[in-house]
Amino acid sequence: MGTIRVYYTSVTGSRQVKQKQAEVTRILDINKTKYELIDVSISEQLLQEMRAKAGNPNAIPPQIFNGDDYCGVRKKI
């Protein structure tokens, strides 16, 4: 199993994005899963990296990766 990385944003006006991000981190915390948070709001490069890895030029946070494997928002954690 690789490192779990959660791409998220600390700056959003979307309630839905905030709720999904909170849900993802809550599930990982409940399961005592170690993960790394990557804030795409601090760098356009990080946002583009997340989108490239997800294979979707319009992907929005949160996006989850297990090592190099794309997990989407909630599956395959």
Automatic annotation (TrEMBL):
Cross-referenced SUPFAM superfamilies: Thioredoxin-like
Gene Ontology CC: cytoplasm
Top-level taxonomic group: Eukaryota
One Pfam family here: SH3BGR
Coiled-coil annotated spans: none
Homology family: Belongs to the SH3BGR family.
Protein name: SH3 domain-binding glutamic acid-rich-like protein 3
